[in-house]
Amino acid sequence: MRNKKKLVVWSVLLLVTALLAGIPGTSLHAQSQNLLTNPNFEPPYTNGVANGWSSWYEDSGELCNTKPSDWDFVCPPIWSEEIDVNNYGLTGGGSSQHIGNSYMTWHAGVYQTVAVAPGSRVRFTASGYSRASNDQPPGASYTDWKPRMMVGIDPEGRGLWYEGVIWSATNDGQDSWQTISVEATAGASGKVSVYVSSQYRLVLALAHMDTWWDNATLEIVQPAATATPVPPPTSAVPPTPRATSTPRPDGAVVHIVEAGDTLFGIAIQYGVDVNDLRSMNAGSLGPNDMLQIGQEIVISGTPLTTEPTPVPTEAQPTTEPTTAPTTVETDTTGTAETASFCISAYHDRNGDDARQIDSEELLPNATITLVGTDGPAGTYTTDGVSEPYCFENLQPGDYVLRQTPPAGYQVNGAGEWGVILGAGQIYSRDMGYVRETEGGDSTVEPAGSETEEPETPDGSTLTDVLNIVIRVSGGLVLLLALVVAGLFIASRRR
Fold first, then answer.
1. CA nearest 436: which of 79, 44, 78?
2. Are strands 54-57 and 106-115 parallel, antiparallel or unpaired?
3. What is the C-alpha separation between 150 and 215, in angstroms, rounded?
4. pLDDT digits (tens, 9 = 90+) for 83-141
5. Sequence-ordered alpha helix ranges (H) in 249-382
6. pTM of the predicted model, to two decimals?
7. I need a labelling partner for 175 at 20 to 30 A (CA). Which of 183, 235, 303, 432 fits?
8. What is the Cα–Cα distance from 171 to 179, expressed in whole angstroms?
9. Where do the domains of the chain lie, and which CATH numbers do they carry?
């Protein structure tokens, strides 16, 4: 009888120990939070791009029509949803983001901008699958056609693939999923942009040159040392500081490569032709114009006393508008040689892409970037009060508008689209955004009707807590069953 009592005491102690030790070991503390929207590239897709993501690409302009024999040019590819109906392994489960082209070289990807506390160390990881062949899958790729897959982080969240992006090493794996990662420290803007990229260049174009992306993760690997308040919205992003250059004893002027520099970005900073940079630095550039930190890039011929005007020679993307403008007016202020572009951001509660003044309020923290054929024309972050805001004194021509929605919202339609501005025009546009949980609901949502799941003091939701309780309770039930079985066996032996 005494032995049975000892067994009961030890069983109770074991049960209490398991209860105390089990809670901290749950997956809530073991897993890092993925900051991305739609990290697995699931539907819906808009213009071939997964929800929550936006497309970007490099465009060599007229070279896409003349097609020089050296194939040293790239053109817009095609984006689409991949569901892998033939089970070739082109998804990591569900859908994947496909980007590719037939008989045309290309350099493109998708990106997403996310709010991150300044000073946080973040890691971006994505899985890429590439193949290049004249044969349909599952035929093997031609090994000399390298996809040059990379992932990148812009610590300031500018949403411009050619400026300030810290890229990973190039991965040329083919016919299998490749996991690629890069780390960076978030800057003072309080947001980062993450990119996936592939580039088929300087190769004879094939019938199939494709890349698929899936299973993306953006996680904080080291929180900021101290909490830094996010600066209030400003009427416009301040101008990019003038690039610094260094004269050498031989009279040449050079730029010292820093982290995030690209040859295309250096050309913009100094107002020189990127092909001139390639010529002056022939032999020192890596494949695909790759640069090394600390490398000297010769920019001789640029006057040091003249403020450079960023005029990239490689044409920026131009597309037809995907959404009809809200209003187009004739300029009556007398600036007949230039144009204006006026924008505002609002909560599109019924998802109809038309603002109802009495029920759909203006939104702060939407970032709008306007890019023309001569480079970026300006960036503006809304404050939800003083809009509409106008980009003024614009030269007539083709422009692309890119937008990053406020946290908790998503773009109602395409993430970027083009417009042609004529002399003397004022082009106005209200940018509509829907909540990520709304998905463009056709019913008008009354103000203040949103309901959110309550959060616990540590930031987790009630569902998370219930899941923890269920997991812990399940383990305790199993342990209790084992204890009862042990007691039963002990009593039978006596």
1. 44
2. antiparallel
3. 15
4. 999 999 999 889 999 999 999 999 999 999 999 999 999 999 999 999 999 999 999 99
5. 263-270, 274-280
6. 0.45
7. 183
8. 9
9. 2-31+460-493 (no CATH), 45-222 (2.60.120.260), 246-298 (3.10.350.10), 327-435 (2.60.40.10)
